[in-house]
Please model this.
Amino acid sequence: MGGREVEALRGVDLTIERPGFFAVMGQSGSGKTTLLHLLAALDRPDAGEIHIAGRAIHALTEAEATGFRRRDIGIVFQQFNLIPTLSARENVELPGMLAGEDQAHLAERSGMLLDRLGLKGRDHHRPDALSGGEQQRVAIARALLFSPPVIFADEPTGSLDSGTSERLWSLLKEVAGECGTLVLMVTHEPAAAVHCERIFVLRDGRMTAIIETEGLDAAGVAARYQHCTRAT
Amino acid sequence: MRPELRLAISTALARRSRTLLLIIAVALSAAMIAGVACAMASVTRGVSARLDEAVGRAEVRITPVGSGKYLTTEDLEAARAWPESALAVGRSTASIGIAFRRPFVLESPNKPRERVRIECLGTATAFGIDPGLEPRIRGINLVAGRLPEAPDEIAVDEGLVRGFTNPQRGAYRVLRGEDPADGPEQPGLGTEVFIVRLLRSPIPLQIVGVTAQPPFGTRWQCHLTLEGLARITGQNRLSEIDVVLRDGTSPTEVVDRHRERFGSRALVQTTARITSDLDTNVRGAELGFVLATVMAFLSASFIIATGLSTGVTERERELALLRCIGATRGQLAAVQLTIGAMIGGAGAAVGIPLGIALAFALAANFTKELPTGAVVSLFGVWMALAGSIGAGLLGAAYPAWRASRASPLEGLSVRSVPPGRGMILRLLTIGLCLLALQVAITFGPRDGQVAFWSYATVGLPGMFIGYFLLGVPVLLLVEWSAGPAVNTLLGLPRNMLSRTIRATPFRYGFTASAMMSGLAIMVAIWTQGRSIVQDWLAKFEFPDAFVMGLNLTESALDKLNAMPFVTGTCAVTLQPIEQDAFGVRAIQRYKSMFMAFEPDSFFRMNRITWIEPTTPEGQAEAQRRLGEGGAILVAKEFQIANGVRVGDSFRARSGSIEHDFEIVGVVTSPGLEIVSKFFQVGESFTDQAIHAVFGSRKDLKEVFRSEAINLIQIGLDPGHDDGEALAMIRTGLLDAGLLDAGSGRQVKEQIRELIGGGLVIASSVAVFAMLVAGFGVANIIIAGVQSRRFEFGVLRSIGATRGLLIRLILAEAVLIALTAVLLGTALGVQGIASGQRLDRLLFGLELSVRPPLVPIAVGWLFIFAVTLGAALPTALSSAKRSPRELLSTMRG
Model:
């Protein structure tokens, strides 16, 4: 980075064996975003292995990685990252368009997803005509187009107000539950992580703790997190 | 719909105004190419129509060799007797004086209007035809009446009718004592004209038909029967015999079989060879057109490349996102290429019809020069279409490559990567190497052919690309030298401009490069044109006056010498000869002219500047050798292009006659060949006679067996009025085979007007090129400003004022414009230097480099106007937005 070599991750042993809503927490510079990029085949590890749904992600060729990102996972970004010149519906259909899917099938699927996420009647609006929460829901719909087994969300509520954020976390939890999807969210907010069933704590590129959130509220998660980070 | 197409359409529509600017840039290029192609095709059709009129259905033509020679009726009978001959028709040609008497209102200054009777006088080329057979071999375009069938009948052309209806001063004489009201005021069917003859009574003829004026015809034509013309000339001779062959006969074999019978006095050739000369000339013009098309669309592709690259930079985040969600590199590249193709296609769709419409509008305004009207050139349309789409694809190639290299991680991060010095050095190195290559290619070879072809195929495109690449290093140089001054002038914080330019030098540099070609073309065109007028035309010393004719005689000389204002005469004969020295071979064949004169009178009347020999004794000896025969002088251009020296041998060929002459001197051209070409003596409109050798009439008679006189130089008493003298000469020589008379000053003026007119047309091409660049660069500048809105948002949020933002953008535009004018001027001057080298090698012309300051200044002003004009509205629009709005352009 900037000409310097930085070891962003140096000891992460992470296993998730079933669908659900999970979080990766850590302070700024802990390596959580780097971890997500590696899992999403946006980057390649210098050492180690990554297996998702039985596929060795670390060994994918560039073309295989592209196809993996298109069909096998969904990504939700902090900045929404919708194409500003396309409508909400077209943004949702974009991965299918790139894959050459039948347009009628795409239209049906995107309509259903937008409806499900509370965006009925907004499908022809461009991103600049949608609120932040609406834009992020469009991004989630896009991630769900091919019903992938895994969805990665990188600080998905970082640009939203608290009320909208709450609704979005609940939505992601619903998606994980109803669609049988593994949703892995990167966050630094205990209020977000409390919605997840398990939290993986990163510090200085290492996974230092796992927090089970059952029975905890946001304050409890925050206290447990601080305890984990102080202890190490 | 394919995803690449959908994405391309949405991207193009999202930036409508910028896409439109790029389309307009391509459309202007396409319009220029299509318009020029249609204009060229229209001219070619006119010339071809004239040639068809002359050649008709004939497959073989027999013509006498040498000026003043004729064929006989025995030759015609011999051709008719060929077993292969289906039809053989003879034609005679002569120059005649023709008069028409009519009522006229005479207007003179300080005198009342007077109704008089006048006799209009003119000369025409008369064709003696067989009225029964001529239409079977050649169409004659009759607009009224019929062809003559009796010796006292004549068909005149529309030009003659117009000329006699509105006679010019000096082209008529007043008939005192005749009834002014008698007769019609203009010639037409049933009216009478008179053929004026030397020392004999005029012959009245009745007009029975009016023919259309031939394309590019400046000389009147009329048709009589063979007998009718023989009665006028007193000679039963033929000027040409045309033969139509039986089906299945090979014209080439027929020519080979029967050529010998005519020996060296007649040329037997297939008419295909005659028309192939036109085809060769057309091919030459087409080659030049193809080169011009390549340059025009190369410029357009530079503009598209820079414009789309700016768009790719602007959309880096979007491209990264697409990679994140599964777009392949190929798909991203395909989107850019699709946008390029769409811009090219749309540009062609708008520009080609516009260009064709312009050509038709031109033809409607120049009906005399293009009586056959405008023609749609399919070749030109295809070139414009292919060029437009090619420019779009070529221009999109680099942005496509850049888009395909978009990295998901790098694109989504906010890290900015400073430009590498290595790339700038590479651009500098490659650019300079290409310029050096162009110089080596042009100035290295001594052979004109090698130099021309390597320049056309490698040197010229390489030079364009080289200057384009130098845009970035030159911009940095301009920034280093002029940046601080501009920074201070516009009240910017210290080093702000410098830091901005150095952060993204490629965008600014290539924007400047895109602007340069129009200015370069204008510099080259105007410098070349000015050099031709000042260095070439200015050096000619034309005679005081001259008369031209197809077959003047000694009696014409006597009549002239008898006129009181004539101080001397010199008869000159123009004998076309063939040689291979000049021109671009495989494109055009050039002929030379053997100009024969009496050395004593010629050197008395002309101020000749000797190049060799340099001593008076040597020059006197050369003159003496000329008079003896077997010796020639050559023009300086001939020597430069051919590398000949005094003492070398020169072989002249005319038909089957070949003769070696010794070169005894080199002189600056006295301009006679220019005069003869200007008035098209000999009607060889498909040959290019650009260089002359000068010999004696003694050699003309003995070697080429010709005694005709084509040109008579006349010395005039300086105290006598030119116009009056010429009018009297015309009147006196009407019956002596006169074609035209003119003064040297008049010829120079008319050539200067011709060159000036050509310069205007060529300049309009340059203006078009600058408009193309203007639209394209406007797009790039707007795109560049818009892509930096987030950066502007950051500046505004930390305290930069709106005014500072505007001044920063304008300062950048000033540096871009400065770079563009430097690049464009340098490119133009290098182009001129190369052109001069080729002029010297190919044609022996030596022209100097003197770029005209006013047009260049106008070009500079235009570039500044376009650049600042594009930057200011966008700067104002960006400055109007709030910092929050500008910062929000980072999202999504």
In short: Chain A has a mean pLDDT of 87. The two ends of chain A are 27 Å apart (CA to CA). Chain A touches chain B at residues 1-2, 37, 40, 42-43, 62-63, 66-67, 69-71, 75, 77, 79-86, 90, 94-95, 97-100, 103, 127-128, 135, 142, 159 (CB under 8 Å).
